[in-house]
Amino acid sequence: MKGQEWYQADEIAETYESKRFSDGGRLIDEREKRAVLSAVGPVEGKRMLEIACGTGRFTTMLAERGADIVGLDISPAMLQEGRKKARAAGVADHLEFMRGDAARLPFPDDHFETVIAMRFFHLADTPASFLAEMQRVARDQVVFDTFRRFSTRSIYNWLLPMGSRLYSRMEVEQLLDGAGLRLADEEHDFFLPYGLYRKLPDRLAGRLREVDTAVMESPIGDHVASVSYWDTRLKG
Predict the structure, then answer these.
(1) What pLDDT digit, counting tens, does each position of 58-101 carry?
(2) 4-234 domain in CATH 3.10.50.40?
(3) Which of 72, 201, 218, 233 has its CA 20 to 30 A from that of 100?
(4) Is 44 exposed, middle or buried (0-12, 13-18, 19+ CB in 10 A)?
């Protein structure tokens, strides 16, 4: 995985959310959470797994809605932040955080109804094997996001020290077919790359988002989006 050592550093975990999801980054957090909730639907009593859960943004959110969920991550520091978040939300007794490798998930086949992975595949060095492993432990649904190859993200990528793996639609379709998954639904958003929003104060980011949304709601929106959210089901 790209940036694995950087990601696991204590100081990165402690400031991860404040640097990415405050000010203009709040818009990204809200949009990603809407995408997840739209894909998974009602989660009361649903057995779920979040891969690369980080500080538990989605794990805690889904636990608050009644999911029986496990958050798995390779970073002990990120998991510690996740546990703090769960305690603050009053759901620490209703979820489990555990350290693990997404390439070798420590669960039997078909163990979870739904498996999700957000902000993961842009760092994946072997996405096909990761997706196949997610499919193995899922009984019904796999939800994940990708950054689009032919978008403003490709320009922004040049400025990043680690870069990101970008995907065309054809590449995603090939990954799904190879993993035995079929596409059930999809959403595409953000003409402008995520990083731009994180650098702006709330008010300016909100105005920029209005322009961005207008572009996305136009006929060309799906073709110029920089982010895609994929809701997939097991074939058969």
Answers:
(1) 999 999 999 999 999 999 999 999 999 999 999 999 899 999 99
(2) no
(3) 233
(4) exposed
